[in-house]
Amino acid sequence: MRVVEHLVSSLVLVSVSVLVLAVVLGYFFQEDPDSGQFSSANGGVVFVVVHSMAEDMKTLEENFRQQNRSCFLLGASGETGGLLLRELLERNVFSRITLIGRRQLTFEGEAYKNLVQEVVDFEKLEDYAAAFQGHDVGYCCLGTTRAKSGADGFIRVDHDYVLKSAELAKAGGCSQFHLESSRGADKTSSLLYLKVKGQVEADIEALGFERCSIYRPGVLLVDRQESRPGEWLARKFFSAVSAVVSTPMSIPIQAVAKAMVSNTLRQAEQKTEILENKAIGELGKSAGK
Q: Is 197 a catalytic residue?
């Protein structure tokens, strides 16, 4: 009986602690209600998005569709990449979609029958330059973790593979590059993860795409197929926090995929833009369900 009472007391204490911490986070991490911060990776002027929700996405989709554009996607086997691919197919805004990855992916359903797949060796990307030619828009959701690949492997995937892919895309005529990054990315950070994310942002911006869009979501709320204990704990925590108070620290992964497509359809207001967590959420909502 005492064990049960102790367990109940512990659960109550944890619940109260989460509630208090949620309120504190809500207070200290509030965003301006009108902000949807876009900025340059190399320190450009931050401006405010005030019209994204007012845009008619159906009209934008139709106008974009008539331009007969093509795109490629890196990282379609991952969580965000998979949802982004589904979003692209459902909204049908590109005449051709090419997946570039280290292995052939298997899909079921008519929606996937016209996909083009290019299998490449990321260690020898120069040999696969043709895979990156002839695309108007590039999407990159490529990434790994230090726990899975080690520090050197993480840098190689999240920086070297991503940057080399962007270089080949630019050389192949790609005019837009959309990169999934991370909240807090900063090339001067003492934390390896944030430093690498910030460095690749800056290096890709320096390539001079006609449009470079960088997305910095917070903790992604998703049940990953791949087990990542640290991320699992963070997701559970922020899911609990989000149920109590709105914070800029997390976002449903579906919103990120929707935002990447919706933002592609919009007219860019500057050559390089960084979409912070709230701006991603707003664009995700503009796409509807």
A: yes
